[in-house]
User: Fold these one by one.
Assistant:
Number 1:
Amino acid sequence: MTAQIIDGKLIANQLLDEIRLNIEGRLHSGKRAPCLAVVLVGEDPASSIYVRNKQIACEKVGIISKAHKLASSITQEALFSLIKELNQDKSIDGILVQSPLPNHIDETAILALIDPYKDVDGFHPFNIGRLAVRQPLLRSCTPYGVIKMLQASGISLKGLDAVVVGVSNHVGRPMGLELLLAGCTVTSCHRHTKDLAGHIGRADLVVAAAGKAGLIQGEWIKSGAIVVDIGINRLPDGKITGDVNFESAKQRAGYITPVPGGVGPMTVATLMENTLKALELSEQS
């Protein structure tokens, strides 16, 4: 068996086209376009690339993007002040603070300060809580992007035994909540899990989000299982790889996402969708 490769870039472009048409329709009816404020602290090369990709996506769909590039020496108080200004600015619909932040800044406090209705990353405790009680509002971009990608691939999730490897607040935990909402039976695995291979071997769906290159071996995968690799790891030679041993896993899986070209584009597309939704929510209030 050779797995069907899920083309996240293709599906993301289809979603971006839908968002673009929606925004064009808004403009034709006299409404305004959404506006996203992106805050980048420091000169981290990877963060700069991520921010640029998000700005390109904004240009593609017609979202106004306002960049705030700040020195890594900025104080937490000054960053707090900027977030509060953006919260009060009615022309700003979404606020994104690119991580990681410098060590002297409390990222948890910054994310909690963002207006939950402008939290287009879906990281605020309010939005994670809404998802937990099955009343999602703005949903974490990567987990929600995974759900939309699987749905677009014609995969039914109801009743599947799903394993999520990784329990970070940004990806692993909301991913588990998204899969519960979709009707899966969910097991969350982490560094204290005993017999990781055994859990994976019983799973109909494996979502890898540990951030450790090659952690999941192909022979662990149940025949015909769906494998979604969220991991992004840079090897010493500069190549990007996921958490799953792709070459061996694709010989056993029914569906599998590549890295790069799988989940990454869906994350950006879902961010655009969240920004549009944030504007729509503000119009309803």
Number 2:
Amino acid sequence: MRRYSACIEWLFAEDGDNFPDRIRRAHAGGLTAVEFWRWTDKDLDAIEAALKETGLAVTSLVAEPMIALTDAANRKAWLKGLADSVTVAKRLGAPVLIAQAGDDLAGFSREEQRRALSETLKPGADILKGSGVRLGVEPLNIRIDHIGYFLDSTREGLDVVDDVARPEIGIVYDIYHSAVMGERTEDVLDGRLDRVFHVHVADHPGRNEPGSGGIDLAHRLDWIFANGYAGAVGLEYRPTKPGADAVKAAIAALGG
């Protein structure tokens, strides 16, 4: 049975609400897992209490600080932050941390930036080793949402993972970003699905709920699961309708 994880940065959110109440709303709506982005701007004690109260799991959160891994000068600061992020992930029971590569930097060649990225992830793997937490680097689209970002290709993201060659390092595969970049899931992931640690979904245009646009999300997810993926699917979309029923309809559109 597929497990869906509500990204409570956008889902179950109400203006002026208490962030941990989103966990409670997700539970009341029938979800079994949630995820969110940054942890440094949140009340972790309150989040932990809401998780224990509801029994919900956390599937992922962001490894901080969110600074460019394409810049070797950021390596020391990022590795320190990664160690802190692993501690938080273990506390909340999150098996995956998400990292973004950072922007395509002026004054550095693509080869230099890719080398900096790989050489930062390698000692990062040492920090992750034995923790039960893995790190997924996330390719993002540069056509709409992340103009100027370095890592816009799933294939190149997987190539970086292969360069690092550590089981602690993989990718987050966001179907929305991949589709916006014109990729076919079965092409870019064929034979390499074991490097995918987490999956995100949203539809296009709008990055709204599944079923609202033209991405063949159900087909792509069917392929991913048929080929051995066993992780969670993060519902990371901007909802146009509030409430649990709208989330259930989005899940239904995914075939789940």
Number 3:
Amino acid sequence: MDSYWFFEGTDLFKLLCPHKFKAYKRDHIFNAYNKNDYIYFQEDSANKVYLIEKGKVKIGYYSENGDEVINAILTKGELFGEKAILGENKRSEFAQSMDNTTSICPVGVQTLHELMRDNQSFTLKIYKFIGLRLKKLERRLQLLLCKDAKTRLLEFLYDLQDDYGHCCPETGDMVIIHPFTQKDIASLIGTSRPTLNIMMNELKENSLLDFNRKEIRIKK
């Protein structure tokens, strides 16, 4: 997930936001959500995709037993609801705001298809984005099904490193400044928050990493 407004060098907001295009500027709006507000539910009509201007959004579904399963937690600049582009008629997941300052720009599927029809480069970027998103989701589900909690945590940290990390020139450590709470991370790797705390502290005691609320430092 390229969560700082960029997808392989492309600013998703500038690329997709309707205010960029005169023909759609009049329909350009932002919707505000508070914490726990739903943007859409499972089985809702899928006729829009959404860009996050600010805030944090949880994507997931409810199992037959009523348990919440989290597929992704997305932040500023990211796109969701993208399966509507591929012809999904009803939502197979829910999208829920996770804070009180979430601002979303909805883009109608018809509008997006018109933009894609007129711009081949734009179309390729969109399909590549969707392909990578589905590939990452498939990999995460395989981890949940086949790997133990510690392995899932380590794989998650590797992903965070790719998405949010930078090398500290003084120490050579990988510094990861990320938007996730411990509760978010526990949900994403399919474990409890106490179990996550135990695993993180074990890694810290073994001098493999250090961490605080907003930063994880993987030791060289």
